[in-house]
Amino acid sequence: MGDDGWGEYNDAQVGREPRELCLRAIELAGPGEGRTALDLGAGAGVESRALIDAGWHVVAFDLDSALVERLAGTGADVRLGPMAEGDLPSADLVHAGFSLPFVAPQDFPAFWERIRAALRPGGLLAVNLFGVRDTWADEADMSFHTRADVEAMTAGLEVIELGEVEEDGQAFSGPKHWHLFSVLARRPG
């Protein structure tokens, strides 16, 4: 899915409930008052709004300029452009739901290290990653991982949950085989 498809996708996401990964992160992280959350690939702003509603100051990154309007009046700091190129402020929670696979493989390792470095001691990481058996795994400009890769990427973090799902289902673009990792991990404090 190229950049030109994101606006249509994000428009279709408006009004849906926040995804479980974000809700679980909010539950585990506790009250957001006085703390900062990064929402990487914020898209329609659904998860950003859930974080804001839980008291977090949100810095939301996305390519879709409509995010500015979607989060208008919420107090969110919206940053437009490729998330892998933006400055990541220090944060107590980093959320990236279904966005990190769209970082090019040559850029992914350095961006992952920047994400880890942005996470404050005691901070929570909540991310989705695509596995190597995903339908889109042959897309050269996307990043895919094995379970061993994900375990290595989270070394040194306290892994709270590492879920792996492999199933046939639907994507916005149609039928798809999903191979997905969901990670909740805390930086030791």
List the helices and strands and how they pair.
Blueprint: H1 6-13, H2 20-29, E1 36-40, H3 46-53, E2 57-62, H4 66-70, E3 77-80, E4 91-96, H5 108-118, E5 119-130, H6 147-153, E6 158-171, E7 174-186
Quick description:
The chain is of the alpha/beta class and 189 residues long.
Structural notes for this entry:
The chain has helices spanning 6-13, 20-29, 46-53, 66-70, 108-118, 147-153, and strands spanning 36-40, 57-62, 77-80, 91-96, 119-130, 158-171, 174-186. It is α/β, with parallel strands linked by helices and 189 residues long. It has a single domain, classed as Rossmann fold (3-Layer(aba) Sandwich). The protein has a 7-stranded mixed sheet with strand order 3-2-1-4-5-7-6. Strand 2, helix 4 and strand 3 (77-80) form a beta-alpha-beta unit. It starts with 5 loop residues before the first helix and ends with a strand.
